[in-house]
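Regression test case RT-17, inverse folding.

Input:
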């Protein structure tokens, strides 16, 4: 018997839930969010989450629909087949406070916010939330958008919360390589949310195969340069971030951008690598807005035995308290 994609996803969820026999009660929740818009959300990420009974919220820039990096069909499938929520990330991903300073609030609403929400809703998507590009906003912008949507995100070092803030914001913590956190630490966050019966709110962009990343050991370190034990080959046109020591979280530090990789020499822009790593440490280089698939799988499989999965609007509606 052949199954449709939707039937296969439902079967995978049921199989996982029936196979889980550790007896853990599910308390608290995991709110996963992904920004910008990538076709891999539908083809790779949603099936990974469905396998463990999970879902997420995707915040899309309309310019990526226009250039077909993701399509409206993809977004409708995420919503209707995988139970995702789709939200707005504005039309063109301009920094909103900067845009408003240059052109005014009304122009930003007319060019960046209203067309984004209107196009998505016209396509049959239940858009109720917004993420400001770069998580950068002002009280004026927040008040303006909350006339049309119900929530927005505010970046936070560790986003564990009982629900939305009074001003309509939800906190969020990045899981990208630019704000790297070891999966062992993220598991501790899961345990904390479970223990408190609260929400863990995480956001990223892409979940990529491990082959898209380079790992190895540091041989020598200077302020802006590493010598490593493997040859590093980076793909042109991609922006890369360096995790100088994979045992150290970098969530509260500035991202370490790779400027040049030549053979076994890695050079970065700014900062002081001698304060972030040492000889023998394990490093990672990967696309700046990517998360390794193996780590993501480990996280969601661990979380599925302890937390329930929610969308952003589930939280706004209070469904996480049911």
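Golden output:
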């Amino acid at each position: 018997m052949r199954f449709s994609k939707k039937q296969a996803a439902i079967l995978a969820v049921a199989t996982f839930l029936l196979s889980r026999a550790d007896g853990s009660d599910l308390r608290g929740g995991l709110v996963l969010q992904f920004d910008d818009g990538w076709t891999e959300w539908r083809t790779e990420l949603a099936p990974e989450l469905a396998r463990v009974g999970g879902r997420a919220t995707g915040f899309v820039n309309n310019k990526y629909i226009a250039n077909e990096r993701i399509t409206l069909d993809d977004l409708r499938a995420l919503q209707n087949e995988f139970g995702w929520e789709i939200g707005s990330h504005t039309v063109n991903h301009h920094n909103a406070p900067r845009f408003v300073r240059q052109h005014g609030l009304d122009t930003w609403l007319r060019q960046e916010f209203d067309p984004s929400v209107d196009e998505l809703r016209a396509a049959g998507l239940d858009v109720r939330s917004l993420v400001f590009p770069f998580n950068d906003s002002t009280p004026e912008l927040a008040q303006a958008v909350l006339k049309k949507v119900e929530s927005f995100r505010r970046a936070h070092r560790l986003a564990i919360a009982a629900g939305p803030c009074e001003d309509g914001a939800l906190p969020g913590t990045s899981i990208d390589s630019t704000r790297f956190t070891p999966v062992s630490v993220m598991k501790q966050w899961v345990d904390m949310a479970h223990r408190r019966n609260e929400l863990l709110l995480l956001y990223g962009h892409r979940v990529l195969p491990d082959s898209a990343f380079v790992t190895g050991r540091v041989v020598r370190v200077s302020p802006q340069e590493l010598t490593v034990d493997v040859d590093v080959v980076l793909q042109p046109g991609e922006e890369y971030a360096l995790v100088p020591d994979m045992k150290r979280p970098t969530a509260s530090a500035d991202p370490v951008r790779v400027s040049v990789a030549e053979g076994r020499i890695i050079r970065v822009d700014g900062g002081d690598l001698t304060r972030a790593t040492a000889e023998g440490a394990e490093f990672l280089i990967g696309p700046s807005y990517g998360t390794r698939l193996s780590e993501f799988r480990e996280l969601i499989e661990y979380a599925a035995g302890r937390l329930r999965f929610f969308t952003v609007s589930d939280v706004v509606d209070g469904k996480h308290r049911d």
